[in-house]
Amino acid sequence: xxxxxxxxxxxxxxxxxxxxxxxxxxxxxxxxxxxxxxxxxxxxxxxxxxxxxxxxxxxxxxxxxxxxxxxxxxxxxxxxxxxxxxxxxxxxxxxxxxxxxxxxxxxxxxxxxxx
Length: 115
Hints:
This protein has helices at residues 3-42, 49-64, 72-85, 89-102, 108-114. By secondary structure, the chain is mainly α.
């Protein structure tokens, strides 16, 4: 057996145990927080461990994505930075002024009326 294969056979079971432990702790934390806060405050039912795990998965899907690290915002930001890199300082300032006017930050709204 190669050294790489030996490391993999040791690491794989530890990784699986770590993932199971992580899921268990996450589900238990969600359950405890829910059962501690929501039933006394709003009169909602208490959750079981499996319901809490489902809530954790649902929140991850809705608010955290599915583990995809490339979001649309970062791609758009990178494209904008590339555009800004090719602009002269005057062009950059013109773009900033138009953004300020468009989003209500500054006197650019008066400049649009003049043109």
